[in-house]
Amino acid sequence: MTTKISRNNINDTAYYDIVGPEFTSLVYPGVQTSANTAGGDTITVNGQGFKSGLSVVANSKIASVVTFINSSQITFTAPANPAGTYILFITNPNGSFAVAPGFSYS
Predict the structure, then answer these.
(1) Cα–Cα distance measured from residue 34 to residue 27, given in angstroms and rounded to the nearest whole number
(2) Which of 41, 43, 90, 94 is the most exposed place for a label (fewest CB within 10 A)?
C-alpha cells in the first residue's frame, strides 16, 4: 500500500495530509491473551499501510526485532515490561503512526 497524500484547501490555504498506517488487531502467540513480562514473545500486528523500516514502541520501550511481512501485517518481539496494559505505537519511516490500545502484559 502506498502512503496516501490528500490535498485540502481551507481559506485558500493548501496543505497536505499524510495518511499513515492503521491498526486492526494484535495476535499473541499460541493461546496467550497477553505478552510475558520478561519479554521475548513474538506478537503479530494486523492493519494496513505498514512500511518496511517501521518501529514499534510499548510503554516507551522499543521492540528490538520488528519484521515487516507486508503492508497489512508485521511481527515484533515484545520488550520486557511490568504487568499491565499499554498503548503500542507503530511508526512508519515517514513519521506517520498508528496507535494500538490495549497491549497487555501478565
Answers:
(1) 9
(2) 94
Q: DSSP assignment, residue 82?
A: -
For the stretch 8-31, pLDDT in tens is 555 555 555 667 899 999 999 999
Which domains, ranges and CATH numbers included, belong to the chain?
21-105 (2.60.40.10)
Q: How far apart are CA 57 and CA 82, in angstroms?
A: 14
What are the distances in angstroms from CA 34 to CA 29, 47, 58?
A: 9, 19, 13
CA–CA distance, 82 with 22 (Å, rounded to integer): 26
- pLDDT, one tens digit per residue, over 70-92 is 999 999 999 999 999 999 999 99
What is this structure's pTM?
Answer: 0.81
Would you say 84 and 13 are in contact if contact means Cβ atoms under 8 Å apart? Answer: no
